[in-house]
Write a structure and sequence with these properties.
It is a single chain. By secondary structure, the protein is an alpha/beta fold. Helix content is 31%, strand content 26%. It has a 15-stranded mixed sheet that branches. It is globular.
Length: 549
C-alpha cells in the first residue's frame, strides 16, 4: 500500500472537491491542494533526514498545518505523534522523550500553547520549531524540483504510523499514558478492513463536523477514509464555541457528528439556533443523559446515536446504540445490518433513556474488554448488580504512567490484571451502568454520598435543565452538599425543590445549598468543567456566609 499512489488516485478522481474545511479561518483544502502541500512538506522532511519509522511530533490544534503535516508524515512512512494543546511544556517534553520524537513542530499562535511556552520554555535539547518557521521552509522555491519526486515509501498496514499520547487520571493519580495506540497497527486498521470498504467505494460524499481536539482525530478520520479511496469532506474548527458551531451546523448540514453529545446539546440550546440534527451522532467518552436525550427528541433530524463509554487509559469499554423515533427505512436497514454482522449487540429507542437512582446506562460491554466491579475500599470483586469501582482488562489498556511505576492503579483478579478507572458503577447481564466518579463522591458525617442519585431526582423537577451535586468543605460535617442547577426557563422555587428532594431522598442526602446558573462553565473542549463549577460554588457560598455575618 503506497500512500503516494493512493493520494494521486484521489486527486485524479476528486481533485477539485473539498476534503477539509476550517470555517473559523475561512480556509478550505481540496484534495489537489492537500496533495500538493503535503508533497512539498514530505520533501522538506526528507531534507531534515526523516525516513520511514522516524518520529514526528506535532503540538497544535485543529488547523490546516496539522492535517498537512499528518499527510506528509504518512507519505514518508514516518510515525506521527499528535500532542494536545492543553498539555503542559513538561508533559510535552516527556511525551517527545517517550516516543523518541526527532522533531517537534509547535504552534505558538495557539493561545494555550503560547501560555505554556510563556510559563516554561522548551528544553534546549529538544529539536523543535514553530509552525511559522515550518510554513516558510515548505514554501521556498528551492524545494519545488525535489518536491516533484518525493520518496515512495511502501506502507505495510501493520506499521505503526500514528501514536496517540495524552495525560489522564485514574482515581487519584494523574500522569501521561505510557502505551501508544497504533492506528494502522496490528490492533488498528488492518488490511481486512480495506477489503471490507471496497464494497462501499460507491459512497459519493460524507460530511463530518468533528470536535475532538483532545485526541486529534480531526485528521485521522479523514486520512483513514482517504486510504480506503472514499470521497470524504470534514468540517472542523480550532476552538469550540456553541454559537459558532450552531451556525456551522445550519450552513454545512453535516451527515455525521463526531464529538460528545453534551457538546451538540450546547449548540441546540443556543438562542434562535435553527438546524437539523445530523443523521448519525457518534458520541464517545460520556454517558447519554436524560435531559440531552429529551432535547434531541425535540429537534428536527436525527437518525442514529451511538454513545460510547471509555477512558483515556483503556479506550472503549461499553457502548449503547439508540435510534430516533422517526428514523427512515434506510436507517433501520443499516441498524439491522450492523446488528446482524455483530457490530452492535442491541438498539434502544432514544426516548427510553431515563435517569434512575440506580445508574446511567452505558451500554453493552465490548467483547474485547473484561470488566470487574470492585469494592473501592477493600479492592475485592463484588457480585453483579452491586455498585463499586469499574476496573477493566483489555489489550488496549495503558501499561502505566510516564515516570511513575506505582502499581496501585491496578487490581489482580483470577490471575488477570485490571486497570482501575476511578468510575463507579455496576453491571447486569453484560450491560454496564454508571453511578458516579470516585473523586466526586461526597463524604458527609461518615456517609459516602453518590452525587448522581441527587442529580437524577433534581433533573425531573420543572425548571431544572441540568443538575450537578458537589461537596463543599464543612467544619462540622466534613462536607456539605451543594446542588448546582442550570435553569431551563423560569427558575424553580428553592423551597419547592427542597421539598421535592426531601420526599425522594434520605435526610442525609438533601442538599444544604442550592445555587442557580444560566449556563454551566465548560472546558475548552465543550465538556462540563466540574472543577470550575465547584470553585465558583464555594466562592458564592463563602460570600453568602460573610454577608450574613
Amino acid at each position: 500500500m503506497d500512500y503516494n499512489i493512493i493520494m494521486e488516485k484521489q486527486v485524479r478522481r476528486n481533485g477539485k472537491r473539498v476534503c477539509k474545511r476550517f470555517p473559523d479561518r475561512n480556509v478550505t483544502l481540496t484534495y489537489a491542494e492537500l496533495e500538493e502541500k503535503s508533497r512539498r512538506t514530505a520533501a522538506w522532511l526528507q531534507t531534515q533526514g526523516f525516513q520511514k519509522g522516524d518520529v514526528l511530533a506535532v503540538w497544535m490544534g485543529n488547523v490546516p498545518e496539522y492535517i498537512i503535516l499528518m499527510a506528509a508524515a504518512l507519505r514518508n512512512g514516518c510515525i506521527f505523534v499528535p500532542l494536545s494543546i492543553y498539555e503542559s511544556t513538561a508533559q510535552i517534553e516527556a511525551m517527545c522523550t517517550e516516543s523518541g520524537a526527532g522533531l517537534l513542530i509547535y504552534d505558538s499562535g495557539n493561545k494555550y500553547v503560547k501560555k505554556q511556552l510563556t510559563a516554561k520554555a522548551l528544553s534546549a535539547d529538544l529539536y523543535a520549531m514553530d509552525v511559522a518557521g515550518f510554513s516558510d521552509l515548505v514554501r521556498t522555491d528551492s524545494l519545488a524540483a525535489e518536491a516533484k519526486h518525493p520518496l515512495r515509501c511502501e506502507l505495510d498496514m501493520h506499521d505503526s504510523v500514528m501514536i496517540l499520547y495524552t495525560s489522564g487520571s485514574t482515581g487519584k493519580k494523574k500522569g501521561i499514558c505510557k502505551n501508544s495506540a497504533a492506528v494502522l497497527g496490528k490492533r488498528g486498521l488492518a488490511s481486512g478492513y480495506i477489503r471490507l470498504m471496497d464494497a462501499v467505494q460507491r459512497i459519493r460524499r460524507m460530511r463530518v463536523y468533528n470536535l475532538c481536539p483532545w485526541y486529534h482525530n480531526t485528521g485521522m478520520m479523514l486520512q483513514m477514509l482517504m486510504l480506503m479511496g472514499l470521497n470524504f469532506e470534514e468540517v472542523t474548527m480550532e476552538q469550540y464555541n456553541p454559537a459558532t458551531v450552531a451556525k456551522c451546523l445550519q450552513e454545512f448540514r453535516p451527515v455525521i457528528w463526531l464529538g460528545t453529545a453534551s457538546m451538540l446539546y450546547r449548540c441546540c440550546i443556543v438562542p434562535e439556533a435553527q438546524f437539523a440534527l445530523p443523521v448519525a451522532i457518534i458520541s464517545t467518552g460520556e454517558a447519554l443523559s436524560e435531559h440531552i436525550a429529551k432535547k434531541f427528541q425535540e429537534m428536527p433530524g436525527g437518525g442514529i446515536l451511538y454513545s460510547g463509554y471509555g477512558t483515556t487509559e483503556a479506550g472503549g469499554i461499553a457502548g449503547a446504540c439508540y435510534r430516533f423515533r422517526n428514523t427512515t427505512p434506510w436507517i433501520r436497514l443499516i441498524l439491522w445490518t450492523i446488528k446482524k454482522i455483530n457490530m452492535i449487540q442491541g438498539v434502544w429507542e432514544i426516548g427510553t433513556v431515563s435517569a434512575s437512582t440506580d445508574g446511567i446506562l452505558l451500554g453493552h460491554i465490548s467483547k474485547m474488554v473484561s470488566v470487574l466491579i470492585c469494592d473501592p475500599e477493600s479492592g475485592c470483586a463484588v457480585e453483579d448488580g452491586m455498585s463499586g469501582e469499574i476496573c477493566v482488562a483489555t489489550s488496549r489498556a495503558m501499561t502505566g504512567y510516564v515516570a511513575d511505576d506505582a502499581m496501585d492503579i491496578y487490581v489482580k483478579h483470577d490471575g488477570q490484571i485490571y486497570l482501575k478507572t476511578g468510575d463507579l458503577g455496576f453491571k447486569k447481564d453484560n450491560i454496564l451502568y454508571l453511578t458516579g466518579r470516585q473523586k466526586q463522591m461526597i463524604l458527609r458525617s461518615g456517609e459516602n454520598i453518590i452525587p448522581h442519585e441527587i442529580e437524577c431526582e433534581a433533573e425531573v423537577f420543572p425548571g431544572v435543565g441540568a443538575a450537578i451535586a458537589c461537596g463543599i468543605p464543612s467544619e462540622a460535617y466534613g462536607e456539605d452538599i451543594c446542588l448546582c442547577v442550570e435553569i431551563s426557563g423560569e427558575p424553580p422555587e428553592q423551597d419547592e425543590l427542597v421539598a421535592h428532594l426531601s420526599g425522594k431522598l434520605p435526610k442525609y442526602m438533601v442538599p444544604q445549598y442550592i445555587l442557580y446558573w444560566t449556563d454551566f462553565p465548560l472546558t475548552n473542549t465543550g465538556k462540563l468543567d466540574r472543577k470550575a463549577l465547584k470553585t465558583e460554588a464555594e466562592a458564592r457560598i463563602s460570600a453568602m456566609k460573610q454577608g450574613k455575618a
